[in-house]
Design a protein that fits this description.
By secondary structure, the protein is an alpha/beta fold. It has helices at 57-69, 137-148; strands at 3-7, 17-18, 21-26, 33-38, 44-45, 48-50, 71-82, 87-91, 96-98, 101-111, 119-125, 155-156. The two termini are 28 Å apart.
Length: 157
């Protein structure tokens, strides 16, 4: 299913749903960031997805990262909570979702890089190379916060 992101766009459609979700800033021992090239909007992003009934939120992080990338992780801390009502995602089935994402920092503990139905490319990216990738502004914000946080106060916004 394709999606269109609207970010601080006065012509964006009105949201009709909110789905709790997670994203993860995963950094390896070399300081590289785990990133995916998404299939739904053709942008680069950090892994993440929707919270399922019966899961803890940290279970969601572990599941989503492994599903999208093949990498197993351990959750370290909360980077921030992102709920900007001016960021909505319109899907081709008519759903228009307001952003509600909790971003975590996690460290890899195993697995092998692989793609999924949600990721057409997966790779470890040096932080200096992130600027050259096509990344949505809301994901850039999470990356900035995740790479610059060391367990301090999480971002709330």
């Amino acid at each position: 299913m394709s999606r269109t992101d609207y970010y601080n766009d006065p012509d964006a459609p009105q949201a009709n749903s909110v789905v709790p979700s997670v994203t993860a800033v995963v950094v390896n021992a070399l300081g590289e960031l785990l990133m995916i090239h998404r299939t739904d909007n053709d942008l680069w992003a950090i892994p993440g997805g929707g919270h399922d009934v019966g899961e803890t939120i940290s279970d969601t992080v572990v599941r989503e990262v492994e599903e999208e990338t093949g990498i197993k992780v351990v959750v370290q801390n909360v980077v921030g909570v992102y709920t900007n009502p001016q960021h909505v995602m319109a899907y081709d089935d008519g759903e228009v979702r307001q952003q509600f994402s909790i971003c975590f920092r996690a460290r890899p503990v195993g697995g092998e890089l692989r793609t999924s139905s949600e990721s057409k490319e997966v790779r470890w990216v040096p932080p200096t190379d992130v600027a050259s990738l096509n990344v949505h502004p809301s994901i850039r914000l999470r990356i900035e916060h995740g790479l610059n946080s060391s367990g301090g106060e999480p971002y709330i916004g």
